[in-house]
TrEMBL record:
Transmembrane segments: none
InterPro entries noted in UniProt: Cytidylate_kin, Cytidylate_kinase_dom, P-loop_NTPase
Protein name (database record): Cytidylate kinase
UniProt catalytic activity: CMP + ATP = CDP + ADP; dCMP + ATP = dCDP + ADP
Domain of life: Bacteria
GO cellular component: cytosol
Gene Ontology molecular function, alphabetical: ATP binding; CMP kinase activity; dCMP kinase activity
Keyword terms: ATP-binding, Cytoplasm, Kinase, Nucleotide-binding, Transferase
Xref: CDD domains: CMPK
HAMAP family listed in its UniProt record: Cytidyl_kinase_type1
Major site of localization recorded for this protein: cytoplasm
Amino acid sequence: MNNPLPEIPIIAIDGPSASGKGTVAQLVAQELGYYYLDSGALYRLLALAAVGRGVPFDDEEGLARLAEGLTIRFEGGEVWLDGEQVGDAIRTEECGNGASRIAAYPRVRAALLDLQRAFLQAPGLVADGRDMGSVVFPGAMLKIFLTASAEVRADRRYKQLMGKGMHANIKQILHDIRQRDERDSARSVAPLQKCADASLLDTSSMTIVEAVDEVLAWFQQVCVR
Ligand SMILES: Nc1ncnc2c1ncn2[C@@H]1O[C@H](COP(=O)(O)OP(=O)(O)O)[C@@H](O)[C@H]1O
Ligand SMILES: Nc1ccn([C@H]2C[C@H](O)[C@@H](COP(=O)(O)OP(=O)(O)O)O2)c(=O)n1
């Protein structure tokens, strides 16, 4: 399927956990004055809602129903679930691992599709996740596969969690990241993989500013084509 609104420019940034997708995507969106979709946050919100409502992580039908009725709101970098502010609660590694588990179910993914596409508004959208370029916005103007070595990503996530005053153990984070990479890449539906038409950006030895500048430079190139 192509973009529902192909005339609106979309930058799709996919990649593994803690590669810097969200950070880079938000800065690019800010620079261009575009909207931003953090698709992983939707899977994290669903995992949190499932725990809160007692829906087991192996109940695909129950999770899909829950996804269809989610009441969520994004505003000013914060997020609300059923009226409760949950920005920090969804950022834990437990929630990320839960999100990765429930994201493997086709019916869960289907239930979240329209919600993700509803973020597409003029003047443009920067969307990050695992399947932005392959499934949700296959007609994106620019597709990027943003990655970094597992060790660099574990170090980034460790510092990020410590910076938020959250408990973190670097060995456990590296273990979880490898397990999540494996689960997200091996699933049968919308697996994490670089699309043939995506540009590879390995940020292992890049600063955030360098990564953002690279994305903006690629975007200028596709805009003048
Ligand atoms: N190129 C980079 N160099 C150093 N740190 C980075 C870089 N990109 C992102 N980070 C840091 O890594 C952490 C994880 O980034 P985040 O955007 O949350 O990743 P993702 O969305 O892929 O999980 C953040 O604290 C961010 O500031
Ligand atoms: N488009 C997406 C986004 C996230 N997911 C799943 C798989 C991921 O491991 C979890 C959490 O995603 P999120 O992007 O928040 O995770 P990271 O910040 O990269 O660690 O959700 C997905 O399957 N498809």
